[in-house]
Design goal:
About 60% of the residues lie in helices and about 5% in strands. The chain has helices spanning about 15-20, 25, 30-45, 50-70, 80-90, 105-140, 160-185, 205-210, 220-225, 230-255, 285-305, 320-345, 350-355, 365-370, 375-395, 405-410, 415-420, 425-430, 440-460; strands at about 145-150, 155-160, 190, 215, 265, 345. The two termini are about 40 Å apart. Bound molecules: arginine.
Length: about 475
């Protein structure tokens, strides 16, 4: 039986009836709908609507429905709320019709979606910590090896490979924090809000919230039934994760080209070409980069669905479910692939070191040396710039120019000057917290590991 047929004398248009159903997609909310219904049933018993026997029968039916799992679609069922009510009636008969006393699907869908998002936040946080762990392990394995860092995609300054990998780690740590922050606003309980004005029964909202492990009941029934900020915020946070993953993928694709040759693509995460026998393509990375766009589209879809809606519940809100499901699934699978890739990937340390030793990346260090000798930086910059020009003409690196060449540029190049151009010295001068001096990177790695082991503990505790 429909949940609302009494006031209608005509049947719904058959096409419309099928078209407006959400059951084909909101079926996945079954576990949350069952949990929320159990909490509501207990509150109904406390309020005297169900006697002990009726409560037991209702809970027993709900437990069975939970065990049966996510159902297949059924064209006679409007949505997951309709499904659970119908199933309770099928199992426990007439008492099932009491379950909807004092509640509305408007508060139910808001509650189910919050429970879903909360669980996804915990799962995705766990996946992010696994990925960050893979970065830390690679950073540790790279030890003191070096590579060029780029600005404008031109060689800029040498850095430790570990320093570069830890840059990604920072993004993932922010993502974890952002999800944790979002979780606070997700974790409030709309149950007891009714359709819009609050339930008509003296339901113990605190107890319902507690039973579902929410921090508190929502404060305003109008807001509670119409708010989808939590879903928008969640998918925005997912968009940033997807953005970070796509930047990582883009850079690794570039670094895996023959031209760079820094990243050796793991065969487990690559695909061949049906036409060109020599090819090994970075498909995992390309798909991560490509799928990121879908997550951004989900974020836009949510904004657009919620934009301009008057208070409170409007059926438009049914359209906010699928973008949440699809973004969560997309990002979870991207994170799983990324973590596997990072555990398997290898770097060509020799080539990276070679690249770090060429391209005048010690020019700033040369200027810094002159500054230490009392020359104003802008003058030193100019002098070293002249030396770079001379070196380019001669096909040399700065350390290969002769003392006489330097004299031509107005630089007194003694032995200390040449020492300052050595790769190790260039790295060592970046000796600030957050800089690439090896001692600083070792500290940063240690800090990253500590943060991660804390998070790991937390992420697993909530599993
Ligand atoms: N399937 C609906 C949704 O997802 C449930 C709420 C329906 N409420 C209503 N007043 N028709 O939004």
């Amino acid at each position: 039986m429909k949940m609302w047929s009494g006031r209608f004398s005509q049947a719904q248009d058959a096409d419309f009836e099928q078209w407006q159903r959400s059951f084909p997609f909101d079926r996945v909310l079954l576990p949350y709908e069952v949990a929320a219904s159990k909490a509501h049933a207990s509150a109904l018993a406390k309020a005297g609507v169900l006697n002990g026997e009726e409560l037991a029968a209702t809970l027993h039916a709900l437990e069975q429905i939970g065990r049966e799992g996510v159902p297949v679609d059924d064209p006679a069922i409007e949505d997951v709320h309709h499904y659970v009510e119908s199933r309770v009636v099928a199992i426990a008969s007439e008492v099932g019709y009491k379950l909807h006393t004092g509640r509305s699907r408007n508060e139910q869908i808001a509650t189910d979606l919050r429970l879903y998002v909360r669980e996804q936040i915990d799962d995705i946080t766990r996946l992010l910590t696994h990925l960050a762990m893979a970065f830390v392990q690679q950073a540790e394995a790279a030890g003191p090896t070096v590579m060029p860092a780029y600005t404008h995609l031109q060689r800029a300054e040498p850095v430790l490979i570990a320093h570069w990998l830890l840059a990604y780690m920072e993004m993932f740590l922010r993502d974890i924090e952002r999800l944790g922050d979002c979780r606070k606003r997700v974790n409030v309980c709309p149950l007891g809000s009714g359709a819009v004005a609050g339930t008509i029964l003296p339901l113990d909202r605190e107890a319902i919230a507690e039973q579902l492990e929410f921090d508190a009941p929502t404060a305003n029934s109008i807001d509670a039934t119409s708010d989808r900020d939590f879903a928008i915020e969640f998918v925005q946070a997912l968009s940033l994760i997807a953005l970070h993953l796509s930047r990582w993928a883009g850079e690794f694709i570039l670094f895996s080209t023959t031209e760079f040759g820094f990243v050796k693509l793991p065969e487990q995460y690559s695909t061949g070409s049906s036409a060109m026998p020599q090819k090994k393509n970075p498909d995992a990375l390309e798909l991560i980069r490509g799928k990121a766009g879908k997550v951004f589209a989900d974020a836009s879809a949510l904004f657009i669905a919620a934009k301009g809606l008057p208070l409170a519940y409007n059926k438009d809100l049914q359209e906010t479910q699928q973008p949440v499901f699809s973004a969560a699934q997309q990002v979870s699978s991207m994170l799983r692939v990324a973590a596997g890739f990072m555990a398997a990937v290898e770097f060509d340390y020799d080539r990276m070191r070679q690249a770090a030793s060429h391209g005048f990346m010690n020019a700033q260090a040369a200027a810094a040396y002159l500054v230490n000798k009392g020359i104003p930086f802008r003058r030193a910059h100019e002098l070293v710039g002249n030396a770079v020009r001379l070196a380019i003409e001669q096909g040399f690196e700065l350390q290969q120019l002769s003392k006489a060449d330097y004299a031509l540029c107005g630089i007194d190049a003694d032995e200390h000057f040449y020492n300052a151009l050595a790769l190790e010295e260039v790295l060592a001068i970046h000796n600030v917290p957050g800089g690439t001096a090896p001692a600083r990177v070792r500290e940063a790695l240690q800090t990253a590991k500590e943060k991660l082991s804390q998070l790991f503990g937390v992420a697993h505790a909530s599993a």
